[in-house]
């Protein structure tokens, strides 16, 4: 079993590794295990559009950590209570939807980070499941966890230069579905207006987003391949429900072969860390 804590995905983001995900469509642990076993680097656990509450996640996020995968929970809104509970249940990453400007991004940072960077309250529920002390989590949290800001509107695009000046978020995720709606062409994800913005954001990230990952999501693996080539190196590809476990493993293998296998992860720090070589999350 790879090292469970702390996660090394922050180092892999900084190294511009290819980081692949599938959507976690279940809250049943034995099915979640099958999703993790397909070999993602991270998984997308959605709380924005799903019918479930935080309690439904149970130990699924902890299970991901223990299997070397970084669980990412998308909360329903830029809300301190939801962000705090997502990290406390074991998320390595929290994704915040519909962040329209630098002020809202700064709010998300404040809600996501422990002092002195932010003001998140300290009581990591997941620690006992992993045999950690609260002090260990407190020591590592701000350097281990990931905050993902979603750019999903014309306003967010127009303010992206200012948002990228903020230091303390790690990933910018462009949401093509809501972006298409904001552009007045809902559901037309491949429309030139959407694509032009996505290409421009990729160019901006190369100049202004150093050390951050650029992310997006596609149900079609062919479109995921297209946008990885444009610089979207943290990619959510469909779901194991849609592709099957064998199909998902094949997709991950093909994308890694085409766009470069992830570099060896850096050695994790912290009292529980021994070696992080070969871990995925």
Describe what this molecule looks like in 3D.
The C terminus is likely disordered. This protein has 12 helices and 8 strands. It is an alpha/beta fold and 281 residues long. It has a single domain, classed as Phosphoenolpyruvate-binding domains (TIM Barrel). Helices cover 41% and strands 15% of the residues.
List the helices and strands and how they pair.
Layout: H1 9-14, E1 19-24, H2 29-36, E2 42-46, H3 60-66, E3 70-74, H4 80-88, E4 93-96, H5 102-112, H6 134-144, E5 146-151, H7 154-158, H8 160-163, E6 171-174, H9 176-182, H10 192-208, E7 213-218, H11 221-229, E8 234-239, H12 240-259
Parallel strand pairs: 1-2, 1-8, 2-3, 3-4, 4-5, 5-6, 6-7, 7-8
Helix pairs in contact: 4-5
**How many angstroms does the end-to-end distance come to?**
12 Å
- What is the mean pLDDT? 92
Secondary structure tally: strands = 8
Widest β-sheet, arrangement of strands: 1-2-3-4-5-6-7-8
Helix coverage percent of residues?
Answer: 40-55%
- N-to-C series of helices and strands: HEHEHEHEHHEHHEHHEHEH
- Total of helices: 12
Quickly name the level 1 CATH class. Alpha Beta
- Runs in which pLDDT lies below 50 for 5 or more consecutive residues are 262-281
Give the CATH H-level superfamily: Phosphoenolpyruvate-binding domains
Kindly provide the radius of gyration, computed on alpha-carbon positions and rounded to a whole number of angstroms: 17 Å
- Find the structural class using helix and strand composition: alpha/beta
For the biggest sheet, the summary is:
8 strands, parallel, barrel
